[in-house]
Amino acid sequence: METIHIYHTNDIHSHLENWPRIGQFLARRRVDHHEKGDEVFLFDIGDFIDRWHPFTEATFGQGNIELLNTSQYTAVTIGNNEGVNLPYEDLDLLYNKARFDVLVANLYQKDNHYPSWVKPYQIYQTIEGTRVGVIGLTAYFEHLYELLGWRLTEPIAELKKWLQPLKEQADIIILLSHLGLQTDEQIAREFPEIDVILGAHTHHVLEDGKLVGNTLLGAAGKFGYFVGCITLNLDEQKAITRKDAILFDSKELPIVKNEQKQIDAFLKKGKELLNQKVTTLRKSLVNDPFQETEFSLLLCSALREWCSADCAMINAGLLLGSLSGDVTDYDLLTICPHPINPCVIELSGKELAEVIMQTKDNSLTHKQIKGLGFRGKVLGIFVFDRISFQENRIFVNGIELDGERRYTLALPDMFTFGHFFKEVFQDKEKKYFLPEFMRDLLKWKLQM
What we know:
By secondary structure, the protein is α/β, with parallel strands linked by helices. The chain has helices at 19-35, 54-59, 62-70, 80-83, 88-94, 142-148, 155-169, 181-190, 259-273, 294-307, 329-335, 349-359, 422-425, 438-446, and strands spanning 2-9, 39-44, 75-76, 101-102, 107-109, 121-125, 131-138, 150-152, 172-178, 196-199, 210-212, 215-218, 226-234, 240-249, 277-280, 311-315, 326-328, 342-348, 382-385, 387-390, 393-396, 399-400, 406-412, 430-432. The longest helix has 17 residues, at 19-35.
């Protein structure tokens, strides 16, 4: 009999407040298993970094990579927070000092070669000689990767390409999937030769795993709330005789000595590195998510100008605080932590009027938003640039809206992902501006 323990994390999103306990737990488990002669693997399934955290923002994620090194991860795959929230050069440098493998079978350079830091799969051999084949796939945001200078291929097609060599070279096949639960279930049904799928992206929690056919799915939610473990028992012919999955609640893990000091140190280091002055304000910029302010109008005008659009709109809830006096990069991150990019959509005057009408729905103002890159709490009111109102009439740049004319509207990309204005936007071409976030536009405007 051989026992293999596979620990996995996913979608940590730089929630390093849970990392001291996770790191200590993984270190102790590794020692315990090795003392018993069992094999241990450790994988992260992507979105380990998130640029809302000062430590991550200041180091462009490289500080996070050192945490994975310290915990002796075997391999990782990337999520969209690594893939499309870093400029090309920063992603290309992210894993320079990694002491683990980066497995992303569907990420290529524009010349159709893998980056130097990427492998499609890797074969690991246990103490008993069992060959464990591990392949990674990331979410198919093809257009966004292309805008940043990468080439992303369709993940299922890429999986089909590599399964045959995996089957020839490995006794066990594991997929690191930053694709979401629905896709993981589809893969398990279509490719029963995959023994284990470790999932991410949709932040799903599988407390005891989930068997789909003979494939065991594991997933550990988000933010480091859980650490997952898959245990495989094998017979002398290296056939799996049993598969078990369990999640460990981070809150119930042993307390770490000086735990809060470690957590605070991440924030302190990030703040120190981001303490670079952007500008000095003569007049405070005050934010209110429920009222139009000089501050929200400033950000909205920056968006329109950056995108060279006819008009623009934002939600005031994008700004999480006010600015005064000396403004630093840390201040801008604090009040605008979202990995949200500018976007432009071309609409007819009739369609633009429909969008504007929908923004007047009072139920949206206090709507709490999770995901879509939004790191605030409530949506807030909508604020416009070069759109004005007089009685029941709409004006764009001082001229009454023409229902037949075409207009370009700049807006945060979060409104283009199918959760807002779906009927108007669903068939429209979207022009995304990457890699700039909204806070980059704010910085640009403040320094003008």
